[in-house]
Every structure is written in structure tokens, then in C-alpha cells.
């Protein structure tokens, strides 16, 4: 066995090299940059100082955007879970021969550009969009409803982006449940609802956990829905990073905000692992 | 200068025979000569040869869309046909994104050659970051046709020399929906239209800090290039923020917001408004007193083959090319109308100045605005977010 111990590493080498070069090395650059200074012209000055972190914590403006991001991410997770569990359960229980077609329908949105999908909401929710147009024409309202450029629109954009991730994670977990357990529960006198509550739901939790974690992390780092569908008060932390790095060429401060976000996500994942166990995620994939 | 190694070795050999060179020195010479030939003829030789070779392509980055199409058709393709130099045509969404790409390239700026930059302040930024070159104006005869008023601000930054040629000009004025806002009202309110309470949640603005502060200064009756009461400007912008429905981020978004009547009034680029008007939308353009005027230039980045760049710039400043590009992008060209006759289509464009002197046009003072960039852009982020 000793002789072949290098083989797994050899097989992993390409992936590890890619992770090292494309993730860890750039990450190190970001951490180093976060201690640098920025000249008024936009040039970076090598230094080691904590000014960028101090600036982040100096008043409540930047932390408030971080808190807003966490809140919106949490809301997105809850909504995606509520909206995603039901279709996933439906696919699991469906006896149709065309289950693969149903799953394909979940995948179809990924074939269209995320930007296009997000922009399409403008034509649906806008003042002259589909919903307002129909409501005004039918006479239900006289003035268009303000549905765009607010947090509701941002949540809508996030859900349409992240819902498939939740559905697929929950579905994979449900598919892994031995159906004979359900039959046993029913034969022991459980109602359909009790069988779901006592057997299916607990056994699907690893998938639910995986979906929640994935949706939470992806929401925390996304910037397109708030940028396209949000109003002046709906910016999230990724928009702030984008503005600092691209808009004002303040790479050091942008890097510091990125490091703060990353640290927060690591703490959340660590806490999750401590109390729920990250191995639960892998169970859902078995 | 070409070194003939055969001749040199023969001469050394003859010296050895005649006793003027010791055997040890001859062997040393041969070793050094061999090493030199190896280096020059080997990998380093390949480098120097490629450096000496004629430039076969040059990169140009612009705003894309109709502007790039016009460039391709009227400047790049004829240029390639005439010189054999291919123009690699890149695009960017906005100036800051492009500068980030330039800064991130290795060596910084080294992957880029020419860029269609906006505003004199951008020219100053690139110069400050060390990306400037020095153009040989005698190689760009068409520069003679460019308005002197447009080259002067660039010369002031680079000690009378140029690292760019001015190419077009425009204004950031106020676009308003004529169905909902009468022209008389817009004319009467001027910059105040952007603070009209009747337009609550029907107002838009660009997310750019400079433009908003500029209009804040106009609203508080101050000179945008010398704001004395900055608190008043911030207060005005805070008051306006509550009425803004959307701070747009691109020209396409601006056009969509106006065309779909999501907003009725906003600051807007004159060329984009001209496009909307051409498409039949009921959009008016107001250039209030001290309206934000700006000019665009073709900047040549450090490390570019200047001979090729100067040839291309001259091509782009050919009146036929410059006018065609201007018609495509709806911004008047930098050519002096008193020297180059302009067609009616150009004369009708917003910001066109038939005198070629640009008197009464107020441009952003690059030193003043770049000097406040860090402080004001951060403060603007807070105001924009309602903090």
C-alpha cells in the first residue's frame, strides 16, 4: 500500500495546482494589497498599515452594507428553501417517465446569460412592464406600481439565479432516500404527512443544508442583481468592492473589504461545520 | 550596426601569426566571440529581431457599438489596406473599468496601445500614472485641422507636448421626457429640474461622483471648477437622493430608463439623447448654463510603436473618417469647422460649435477634480446610498 501512496496525490496534482495558482495565489495578492496605500492618482504604494481596515470600521457606513448583505443573503436562503423544496419533492415523488425532462427544465435558465435573465425583470416589473401594463389596462390600478429598483426586485433577481441550486441540492438528497423506509413508515401506521415529517424531511436535511450554504455564499458575493434591479439603498458588499476596485481604482481598500467579507464567510462556514457538520453536505451527494 | 564576425576573427588570427597577439589572448577572444554570437544569434537574437521587426498590428480600445463600427469602416480598414498594419479592435464599458485593465496588465499598460479616453481629467490620470508618450506632431499633419481650443488643455498637462489627439466633444446635460415636462418648464428650472419635487421617484442620475457634484454646484449657484461651499452641494445631493429612482451605470441603461419612461428627467450624455431623439422618443435635451462639457481623445499608451500609432491617428483625423465616426456616435468631431466644412448632420448635433473656439463651454479642470477624487468619490458613495 505504501508504494502507491503517491498515486492519489499525482491524480490530484492538476486540480491542486489549479487551486493553488488560480485561487490561493490571487488570494494572497488580495491580502497583501489590503495593507497597501493608494495615491490620489490611483497608483498603489507598497506599505504595511491597517488604515484600510480602520477605515472600514471607522463608522457604521461600511459595516451597515455588510449587515445588509448578510440580511439579504439570509432572506434569499429562506425564500429559495421555501420555493425550492416543493418542486424538488415533486420531482422525487413523481412517477413520470419524463423526470429527466423536468430536471432539464431546472437547468434551462443556466443556458441563458445571467445578465440577460436579470435584465428581463425590467420588462416584467417596470412601470411600463408586463405586470403594470396588464393591471392598468384591466383597470385594477390607475398608476403603475413601484416594483422595480427596490429590495423586492433584488430578491427576485437573486431567487431566479439561485433557486436551481437549491432545488438540485434538495433533489439529490431526496433521491438518496431509500423508498422502502417510507413504505415501512406507512405500514407501521404513519399518515402521508407523518411519514414526510418523520422520515423524508430529516433525511433530506443534508441536501437542504448544502443548498442553504451554497445559496448564502453565492448571494453574499453577487453584485449584478443589486446593480441592475436595485435602487440607491440596495447596494450590497460586492457592489462596494466593485466600485472601490473599478470605479475609484482604490485596490487596497477594495482588497480590505474583500478580506473582511471572506473572513466573515469563513466564520459562518466554520460555525456551520461546528454545529451541523460540513460532512452533511457530502452525504447529500452520496 | 552589423558586426562581421568572420572579418574580426580573421584579423585576430593574422595578429596571432604576426606575433602581435598572444595565444592566450586569442583563445580568450575566440571564447568571448563565441559567447556573443551564441547570445545574439540565439534566444536573445530572436528577441532583438522581433523588436526590430515592423509592427504588424496595433491595439485600439474604444466604446464599442456604433462608434467602433464607424472606426472600423472609415479608419481601421482603410488604414490596414494602406499600411498592412492590422488594428486589433477592443472594447470597454466605461473609463474606470478600462483603466483598471490597463493597470492590471503586465507590465502595467504594456498590453494596450491606443484608447478612446474621455475627458481631460482622464488624460491627466494616465499621465500621472506614467502611461504617457510624446507624439511627433509632424507625423500627424491632420492635427492641424483640430480645434486649438481642444488641444490646449492637453498641452497644459504635458508641457506643451501631446500624448493624445482630441477626437470629439460632448456635453452632459439634462434629458427630460417632453410628454411629462414642458420645454418651458425645463428651460425655466435649468439644473433645478433635477430637484423638482413633482418628479419625485421619476428622476434618475448617473452614478458618477463628478457629474453629480458638478450639478450640485450648478444647483447651488457655484462655479463647478471652484466650489466654495461644499456642504451646500452635499446637502443638495442628499435632498435629491431621496427623489432618485435609479442611478444608472451605462449609456444603454440610461437609454432604457428614458425610453421605458421609468424616469422623466436625468443628467444625460448629449450623444445618447440624440440617438433617442432619432429613434422617435419624446426626449428633450437641456444644456443649462455652465453645462458639463467634455472632450474625448485618442490616447497613446507608453510602449506603443509610435510610428504606427501616429500613422493611425492621422488616418483617424482624416475629415471623411472623423465626420463618419461623429455621425455614428452623435458627438461632434474635434475638427475645426472653420477649417473643415461640416455637413448638416454634424451641425445639428448637440454641443457643436460652429466657431471652433469653444467659448462658453465649461470643461472640468483636471487638477481641481483629480485632486478631490479620493475624498469626494468616497463621500459620494455615502450620499448615494442614503447614509
Question: What's the structural blueprint in terms of helices and strands?
Answer:
The complex is a heterodimer of chains A (286) and B (387).
Chain A: H1 6-33, E1 37-38, E2 44-45, H2 51-58, H3 61-93, H4 99-107, H5 114-125, H6 130-138, H7 151-175, H8 179-187, H9 192-221, H10 224-229, H11 237-247, H12 251-275, H13 279-285
Helix pairs in contact in A: 1-12, 2-12, 3-7, 3-9, 5-7, 7-9, 8-9, 9-13, 11-12
Chain B: H1 5-17, H2 23-41, H3 43-52, E1 57-62, H4 65-83, E2 86-91, H5 95-104, E3 114-118, H6 119-128, H7 148-157, E4 164-177, H8 183-189, E5 203-206, H9 209-219, H10 230-241, E6 244-248, H11 251-259, E7 265-269, H12 270-278, E8 283-286, E9 292-300, H13 306-316, H14 319-329, H15 344-347, E10 362-363, H16 366-371, H17 373-384
Parallel strand pairs in B: 1-2, 1-3, 5-6, 5-7, 9-10
Antiparallel strand pairs in B: 3-9, 4-7, 4-8, 4-9
Helix pairs in contact in B: 1-2, 4-13, 4-14, 9-10
Question: Which features characterize this protein?
Answer:
A: 286 residues, MetI-like fold, 2 strands, globular, B: alpha/beta, D-Maltodextrin-Binding Protein, domain 2, 17 helices, 10 strands
* Count of strand segments of chain A: 2
CATH superfamily of the largest domain in chain B: Periplasmic binding protein-like II
Q: Quick check: average pLDDT of chain A?
A: 90
Largest sheet: number of strands, sense, barrel closure of chain B:
10 strands, mixed
Shape of chain B: globular
The CATH topology of the largest domain in chain B corresponds to D-Maltodextrin-Binding Protein, domain 2
Largest beta sheet: strand ordering of chain A = 1-2
The value of Rg of chain B in angstroms is: 27 Å
User: What is the largest interface, and how many residues per chain?
Assistant: A-B, 29 and 31 residues
Gyration radius of chain A, to the nearest Å? 23 Å
Q: CATH first level of the largest domain in chain B: which class?
A: Alpha Beta
Number of domains as seen in the coordinates of chain A: 1
